[in-house]
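Case study B.
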Amino acid sequence: MRHLLDTKTLGREEALRILDVAEDMADTQRREIKKLPTLRGKTVVNLFFEDSTRTRISFEAAAKRLSADVINFSAKGSSVSKGESLQDTAQTLQAMGADAVVIRHGASGAPRTLATSGWITAGVVNAGDGTHEHPTQALLDAFTMRKRTFGDDSRGRDLAGLRVTIVGDILHSRVARSNVWLLDTLGADVTLVAPPTLVPQDVSAWPVRVLYDLDEAIADGCDALMMLRIQLERMNAAYFPTEREYSRRWGLDATRLAALGTGSMVMHPGPMNRGLEISADAADSPRSTVLEQVTNGVSVRMAVLYLLLAGATDEREDAR
Amino acid sequence: MTEVFLFRGAQLEGGEAADLVIADGVIVEAGTGLSRAGATEIDVDGLVALPGLVDLHTHLREPGYEASETILTGSRAAAAGGYTTVFAMPNTSPVADTAGVVEQELALGEAAGFVTVQPIGAVTVGQKGERLAEIGAMADSRARVRVFSDDGFCVWDPLIMRRALEYVKAFDGVIAQHAQDPRLTEGAQMNEGIVSAELGLTGWPAVAEESIIARDVLLAEHVGSRLHVCHLSTAGSVEIIRWAKRRGVDVTAEVTPHHLLLTDELARGYDARYKVNPPLRREEDVLAVREGLADGTIDIVATDHAPHPAEAKACEWQAAANGMVGLESALRVVQQAMVDTGLLVWADVARVMSRTPARIGRLRGHGTPLSEGHAASVTFYDPRPVRTFSSDDLRGRSVNSPYLGRELPGEVRWTLNRGVPTVVDGALLETPGVRA
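Model:
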């Protein structure tokens, strides 16, 4: 794997390979000594143009457990705010000898620009770009769904027939976009539930069903219910009238939790707004996968870094 | 005494072959089998002769943004593309909202000598949309401004727009509107639709253009004024103009070469060369604007030539500037999109790229027929070669062309600006009229 920029162009075999390698990584993380020597001597740069402590420390943990050297680069100014340009930042990292760049950027497409510009030779991992994609989040979500569904028998399996419902601000969500494409690739059936203002104007090309009514979606049945974080500044832009109304119509409260089938899992990419899109009952219930998602995030990111930096040699090895 | 030319065998607007004798800036004779003692004879057999092209929508960036373009470099790009006249948009620094600035631009254009540079004046002071600029002073100035535009910004306030439309009637002026509802396009990055949804780029909906055009044609009808719609880009806009013309509204409309050829699919790689305002639209829109140009709903092709320095494009899409250079490629793109597809013949090209833009801009002596007694502003164009468009084709200061690496037909062989050659045998002259 040269780069990981999105899930839209990630093939089924490649996705399964990442998930299966992540299984191996997860196994190693149950040992007392979690550190592997695999990426010794490699340098991974976490290039974060947006604050995101969770994603950054997850990538940092993943790289360190593979013995890579990690440089955290918080680029406060982007060229948008008249700071250093992406080009100059990238060329600086190149001059320092980065082997992989994990980039989080507020502008959609910035990772692709970085990967295709010729400014660097390092592999690029998209750690979230604007309202475009967040591929490792979707991979860790898929890993979590697979693990909950198949347990130790997960390797080699896809998510065929799994019913996944994603609820919230689809319009601005890179998590939703990455999940839609990956889940479709893995055979899941995806339903999106959102206020009509927070669905892109034309999703006719998306392999999804769109509903505006969360109760209807729950009544139809779903195996995984993924609640997205709602950002309060959306309210000021007239996407919805008040926090309370949003919570009432699209929040996962105790009643809706009770209506959910017992086998359903409740997911959230974090950080959660407890009491807004998800109630404490739901967040803390045994159906919640929130903490598993965090744990699995490290394994999935280990797998991605491994395949990017060490996987080139055994590229032809069959996915197990 | 200036050089006398005898061009032999040109197809006038693509029709009959004819010879043209040019002396002292004028076509002194047009016909077949001509001869003229002492004239430089040039064989242009098989070339299409068009009246020198007139661009109603160019950004020359001077004064203020000389890193992108100057009046001289932009004039050179224009001549290379077969133009002899360009209308310069007022979004300079300072804004061309006073007689002083437009007269300075006119003088710089004259000094450059490649094309006639006709300034466009701002509608409102500083293009801020709040109060009318001194439109009358610009009209009365040596630059004789007749076209007024806040291009880059929409004259959004309906009352200001109404007043502007009314006011310019005093001297047969026209308001050229950049139709874009600002509220519907806050943070907009590309056409709103299937592609923007996937790429996670904020959408620029067609309705933000169409609603302003609809309002403006109704305003123009109400006050009996002349309206020109800049860079129309959607199928819906074509429908509205068609409807307005049927009602007898005095409206004209332009389309850019890039909206005749390119679609929003090109945004998929986040290559900011394809970022432009209004944005590239869907295939359906491209077909609709072609049809609109073919049936006369859209009156002209204008380039919206918008040079930017390299760093304004070599960055993330969201941070990149809007705009494309277009003067050097316009005629070739129009050939590919309109002539080679059978939608227009060369006489139509002469109309939409020369005669009508000059008429809309009320610029006498430009876009005139290639016949005896008229100005010798002529473009000799060879439609036969097909070549890859490259940076060698670009003659301005900036290289933000969406066509680099793309196959385009045609080649400008000669451009004469009032009898003075600026392009000779396909090569742009360093100094107009001075051949190596």
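The interface with chain A takes residues 189, 192-194, 196-203, 205, 269-270, 311, 314-319 of chain B (CB under 8 Å). The remaining cases will be described in the next quarterly update.
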